[in-house]
Design goal:
This protein is mainly beta. It has one domain: Immunoglobulin-like. 0% of the residues lie in helices and 47% in strands. It contains no helices and nine strands. Strands 1, 3, 4, 7, 8 and 9 form a six-stranded mixed β-sheet that branches. 24% of the residues are buried. The model has no long low-confidence stretch (mean pLDDT 97).
Length: 103
């Protein structure tokens, strides 16, 4: 998965489906989801950002970036973190977040 947005933009929202190792949707009922976006060893542009679960049974989530978060054009790494009802946590695979320069 990768996601692209223009520098300084707040749309489109990042819309994703969280899947397991077999590619099946993860049922997010009773879970909360956060997102981290940055580059290893550098300050994150999003740290524990609140993600909206739009369809828990289908693992669908969305996140809206602020203009400040997309203020620098470059490629970042993103990762969702799921906290289950029993407080155990699970991380997704890392994906690219590409902030593109405005032409």
């Amino acid at each position: 998965m990768s996601y692209s947005i223009h520098k300084g933009a707040t749309r489109p929202k990042l819309i994703a489906q969280i899947v397991d190792e077999d590619g099946d949707a993860v049922n997010l009922s009773g879970a909360t989801v956060k997102i981290n976006v940055g580059w290893p060893g550098e300050t994150r542009i999003v740290s524990n950002g609140a993600v909206t679960v739009t369809s828990a049974p289908n693992g669908l989530v969305q996140f809206a970036f602020s203009a400040a978060q997309t203020g620098t054009a470059r490629t970042y790494r993103g990762q969702f973190w799921i906290t289950w009802g029993d407080l155990s946590t699970q991380a997704t695979d890392v994906f690219d977040v590409i902030v593109k320069e405005i032409v």
